[in-house]
User: Which sequence fits this backbone?
């Protein structure tokens, strides 16, 4: 079985090195090109997706009933149902399968994980359709974020897990000197012992990207995994599990090393697993409300969460006003503001800002961002490609209600998608408010809702942004300033608030973007989440170390 | 300030290498020799200890009142009191001091930690007296376990913390190719952000050895530390804190980076800190009862515990019957069975065992262990040096009550200590019971109480020992067998139960002993504790990583 490890070893070594160097690297090509993925890959992927519609999903795992009523945000009902079973049944199957998996060598397990990732990579076009029609992401984003970028995040977790496990030596001779006497000699051996059953809860917007780190970190460290997708986005994870089970079975293990726990929104089952003493670790991506419930009620102490936050932009000054407005416009528009990394609060001093185009008043800054959004989304085909669709009807309702929260600088509007007349869409709503209107901007407003917030000064902007991060959480922060002292002050303030800071982004890179092997996603140091994807702490506690020491016969 | 880092760098590098290789290494000499510690060190240490008695302890830190009524298990009342204050006061002082400490470089902090350890090492004879007269350890054990071995454990934690923090690069250039266009270039920087205030709860038996890993792991990773000693063993940690504060202040930091939170048994204060939202991490050593309370009620999710367990010995067969009995006798006698690593349950098949001295019946095995204890403790001076005194009166009561739990194979008796007529002592009680008497052996019996348990077979012995480990926890397990298949089966069973296994110890090394830089103490994988001293998981989550990324100007 170490054949798989050898086959993928060069990639693994490169990934381990990339995690340490944190320069640019990617394993799986993000370009949706026929030259890379095969000339017929795009058509094949779409055909494979269509062939799944309206049928029971074929997954040979423990099953007591069927679940699943996914509805594409672009309009179509998927009509797919999935096998599912009670927590007791799935946990029992997972524990049983986990025994041999736990006993396998590090190399065997890591080899299987790398093989799974390669097979998932080959299915990237099918996955793109599955992600698009569950999350509402436009096709290209669904391909990249749901495919190669998610695969990179999975590989990153495998690399961290491998690196961490292999830092523990397999064996050592311990020889303690005894003065003039013979030394005491012990032969010691250490082995990795997994935690047990890992329960992974997926989200509705990035079902693969946000779950792969947990799935692969737990698998690689010897745990069996139960995946509970969001009821609105089951298909991408069901496909993942199907591919994984095939690779696991081919490698000679019980495929129940990974199982699907599907449910419907009106009959949720996550809590049955969360309070179950048979679950050893929980990885949760979702709302702070349910996240708090998970943290408080989980039977296990080992809970990793990514919840949500209110991501700030502080505008102090800029040497590229047009570039700044365009960059912010894109960040607010991309996937209709449904990324956990999308900005919500834009802090601007009441006295305006200095720019390469001269001084700009607060109102000019706000209206220039609005104009940049209008320009960006002026061409409908391009707009659809950026905005995609809105995953949840509640988000559209929130946008409607949010209009009352401030002065409308740019109104939200539907954004039709060619070929999908029923698509649920909404372009960015931008509101102007005062710093004192914290009731408006001081909590998470999920979706395409943002605030341009009038502050007394950049100093107040940084203080408010850092403080709201500490209280409500944030995953990203952004600053525009030409002043080094301001940049240093912001760097200190945001580091203390435990949030990654991007400075002066004006080109083709956006604050929303988090690159595997370089950007740590979430710090774990503010309420946006208690863990980071991926660092050593994310993997090191998923296994423990058992020692055997034998006295050497004299 | 990096001067301290440079001064101690060679030692640090050696310690980091030792953690990885896990062969024998020790930084601080365990031999209580005048040649190493200075010809007058022993006398000076005793004089310094005596000078502390009957006086207020001089510690210049936030104080609202005094606490402390320590009573030596060897008889004398220490008559020392210590400054203490409310949780609000100490946490506020700790947070304030923590700001500059958090902002210091990794090298500055690690340098200070290494300097503290060196100064503590120089005070090893004073510390030996302090540990002896709070815990009841005999002098030589108090010197070694309370001094150099504890210092080694502290250095190990610093080495792990340094290694983990420096795996994150300080900076990198991220350059993403853009086909034929110019690459996108971001300059990225990462910094370590500590969790905040670390609260460390010490125990009555190993106040330094069990607390140093937490104290030094948290300090090195930038957290400020509040230490709450067991009310029976304040002095060793008060001395530690005094030395640490001096080194911290000399390095230019607020000495409140570490403060003492002393209390009395009748007015405990730990809970005030545990439920306080200003505490970011908790390290607890103590009873499973209070440990469960800590895990359930802590305001923070980040809790590291070492609680307790019932450590098994499985006897299957031996090629050195006399060596085995002598080794077990020592393990049961050392510090009167008050080590968290001391064995409690000795499983022996009803049909007896094969040995180099021929077949031995169950009763012969039990009586031979009893005889070995009698021999070991036959000479009073030597007995006192091994047994020490009993830390807690409740333990003596437990020994008295335990006599009813089985057939007495060897009775417990007082063991007078020359020069200390009031010493509270108890030699090992050994009881024979059946495997079915789980009400007797199936729970923790703290102190010099052990059971020789009659099982149907070695297979049953291993199963019972592994199962009781899973249910009640265990820190050590021991096996005597000449059969490789039995050894392999036991290795698998105990690894699955998350306990370190020692095999065929007959010479001068004992199952109770856990060597820094080689033996992982506690696995974290059974109820004996949720963390390991020390592995990567023990340090990696004490800090988080904050990123700054800047777009390079075109």
Assistant:
């Amino acid at each position: 079985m170490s054949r798989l490890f050898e086959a993928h070893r060069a990639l693994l070594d490169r990934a381990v090195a990339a995690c340490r160097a944190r320069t640019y690297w990617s394993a799986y090509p993000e370009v949706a090109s026929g030259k890379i993925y095969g000339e017929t890959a795009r058509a094949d992927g779409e055909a494979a997706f269509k062939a799944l519609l309206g049928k029971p999903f074929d997954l040979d795992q423990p099953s007591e009933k069927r679940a699943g009523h996914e509805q594409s945000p672009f309009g179509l009902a998927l009509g797919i149902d999935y096998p599912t079973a009670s927590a007791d049944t799935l946990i029992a199957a997972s524990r049983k399968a986990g025994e041999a998996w736990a006993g396998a060598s590090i190399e065997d397990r890591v080899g299987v994980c790398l093989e799974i990732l390669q097979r998932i990579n080959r299915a990237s076009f099918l996955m793109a359709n599955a992600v698009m029609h569950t999350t509402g992401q436009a096709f290209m984003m669904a391909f990249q974020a749901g495919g190669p970028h998610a695969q990179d995040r999975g590989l990153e977790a495998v690399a961290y897990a491998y690196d961490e496990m292999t830092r523990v030596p397999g064996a050592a001779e311990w020889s303690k000197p005894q003065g003039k006497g013979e030394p005491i000699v012990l032969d010691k051996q250490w082995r990795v012992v997994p935690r047990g059953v890992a329960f992974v809860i997926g989200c509705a917007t990035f079902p693969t990207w946000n779950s792969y780190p947990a799935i692969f970190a737990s698998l690689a460290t010897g745990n069996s995994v139960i995946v509970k997708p969001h009821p609105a986005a089951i298909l991408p994870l069901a496909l993942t599990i199907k591919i994984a089970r095939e690779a696991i079975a081919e490698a000679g293990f019980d495929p129940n090393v990974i199982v699907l726990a599907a449910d419907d929104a009106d009959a949720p089952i996550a809590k049955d697993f969360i309070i179950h003493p048979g679950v050893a670790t929980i990885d949760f991506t979702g709302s702070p409300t349910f996240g708090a419930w998970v943290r408080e009620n989980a039977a296990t102490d080992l809970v990793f969460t990514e919840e949500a936050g209110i991501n700030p932009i502080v505008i102090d000054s800029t040497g590229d006003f047009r570039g700044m407005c365009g960059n912010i416009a894109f960040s607010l528009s991309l996937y209709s503001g449904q990324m956990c990394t999308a900005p919500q609060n834009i802090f601007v001093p009441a006295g305006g800002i200095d720019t390469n185009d001269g001084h700009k008043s607060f109102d000019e800054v706000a209206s220039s961002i609005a104009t940049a959004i209008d320009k960006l989304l002026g061409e409908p085909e391009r707009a659809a490609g950026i905005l995609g669709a809105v995953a949840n009807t509640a988000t559209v309702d929130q946008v409607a209600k949010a209009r009352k929260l401030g002065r409308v600088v740019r109104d939200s509007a539907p954004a039709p998608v060619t070929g999908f007349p029923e698509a649920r869409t909404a372009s960015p709503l931008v509101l102007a408010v005062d710093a004192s209107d914290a009731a408006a901007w001081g909590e998470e407003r999920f979706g395409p809702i943002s605030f341009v917030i009038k502050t007394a000064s950049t100093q107040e902007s940084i203080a408010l942004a850092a403080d709201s991060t500490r209280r409500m959480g944030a995953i990203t922060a952004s600053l525009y300033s030409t002043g080094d002292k301001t940049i240093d002050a912001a760097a200190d303030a945001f580091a203390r608030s435990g949030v990654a800071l991007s400075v002066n982004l004006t080109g083709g890179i956006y604050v929303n973007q988090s690159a595997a092997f370089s950007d740590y996603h979430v710090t774990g140091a503010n309420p946006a989440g208690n863990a980071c994807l991926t660092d050593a702490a994310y993997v090191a506690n998923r296994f423990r170390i058992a020692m055997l020491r034998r006295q050497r016969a004299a």
